[in-house]
Structures are given as C-alpha cells and as structure tokens.
Amino acid sequence: TKAGGGRGKIVARCTVDGIRQCDVFRRREQAESWARLTCLSVEALEDYQRGRKHLRFWLLDDVELLDEAPTLKQLGVTCPPQSWCTVKRGCEIDG
C-alpha cells in the first residue's frame, strides 16, 4: 500500500496456493464464478482483460493482517516491486 504518498508498507502476508487463468470472453460460466469470488462484475473482468489473452487469478491462503505494518526498507527492499515478490520464511523484521 502507499502510506502518505510514500513507498508503502506491507499490511498483510499470505501464501499463494495456486494461480488459475481464464479467458472471460470465451468461458462465460467460469467468468461468472470468478466474478462472484472476486466481488466484481463479469463486465469489470472483461474490461480488465481487454487486449489480453486471459486473466490470472491468485488463490490466497493463510491471509494474516499485520498489527504493525513494516516498511519495505525494513525488509531490505529499496524500491516497490512492479509485480509480486517473496520474502524468505523466518525473516525477522527489525523495528
């Protein structure tokens, strides 16, 4: 997240349990299912997919909101990632 327009903080952690993909234009039944799961409309998914072959959906497990949100700097990350990244298990956050 962005904090005060800055680089952001990590507010939760989770395990990615899988990644699925769907062409919402060709697989209407699947698109309706993903729409329900993501709390979006099929139309919103279509707008997001427009110009792409398909959408990817991340299946998250063990989602845990953090009481104290560490900064990226505290984790040794100097620039916010443009996509996702992982932190090795057992890393301690210096605070």
Structural notes for this entry:
By secondary structure, the chain is α+β, with helices and mostly antiparallel strands. The protein has helices spanning 28-38, 42-49; strands at 12-22, 55-65. It has a two-stranded antiparallel ribbon with strand order 1-2. Residues 90-95 have low confidence and may be disordered.
DSSP helix fraction: 10-25%
Total helical elements:
2
Taken as a percent bin, the fraction of beta residues is: 15-25%
Compute the average pLDDT.
79
Main β-sheet: number of strands, strand sense, barrel status? 2 strands, antiparallel
Shape: elongated
Key phrases:
95 residues, alpha+beta, two-stranded antiparallel ribbon, 2 helices, disordered C terminus
Structure in a nutshell:
The chain has helices at residues 28-38, 42-49, and strands spanning 12-22, 55-65.
What is the strand and helix layout of this fold?
Layout: E1 12-22, H1 28-38, H2 42-49, E2 55-65
Antiparallel strand pairs: 1-2
